[in-house]
Amino acid sequence: MKSLTMENFEAEALNAPIPVIVIFMAGGCKPCELMRSDLEEIEKAFAGKVSMRHVEVEGNEELADRCSVIQTPTIIMFAGGKQALQIIGYNTRRDLEDKIGKKLNEIT
After folding, report:
1. Annotated domain spans of the chain
2. Domain 2-99, CATH 3.20.20.150 — does that match?
3. Are 93 and 45 in contact (CB under 8 A)?
4. Among residues 63, 105, 64, 60, which one has the least CA distance to residue 84?
5. Cα 7 versus chain centre, distance
6. How many other CB atoms are found less than 10 A from the CB of residue 25?
7. Whole-model pTM above 0.85?
8. Where are the alpha helices (DSSP H) in the chain?
9. Greatest CA separation found in the chain?
10. Residue 34 contacts by C-beta under 8 Å, 6 or more apart in sequence?
11. How far apart are CA 100 and CA 39, in angstroms?
12. What is the pLDDT of residues 55-101, one digit of tens each?
């Protein structure tokens, strides 16, 4: 999963040809790490339909502020340059797949 910063956010998330799911995480956040591995598996399941990126909030506070992130983990799907979905807090892999799949069906 590639990292995002303010420098590559626009190109990698807002201007991407397919929806991009960004997980905002913090060091030492166990739910963040659990969801990251689940999201990597979900990326494989939705290959070609969505791509995944992550943001380490520490050191990227400006980007977290821009995306209105108030806690970690926060997952945001961007499609067509806009926020299409936001998931805050821990979710199981099944819940993530359901929410992401439903949103992808709505926007494609």
Report:
1. 2-99
2. no
3. no
4. 105
5. 17
6. 22
7. yes
8. 6-9, 30-45, 61-66, 93-107
9. 35
10. 90
11. 10
12. 999 999 999 999 999 999 999 999 999 999 999 999 999 999 999 99
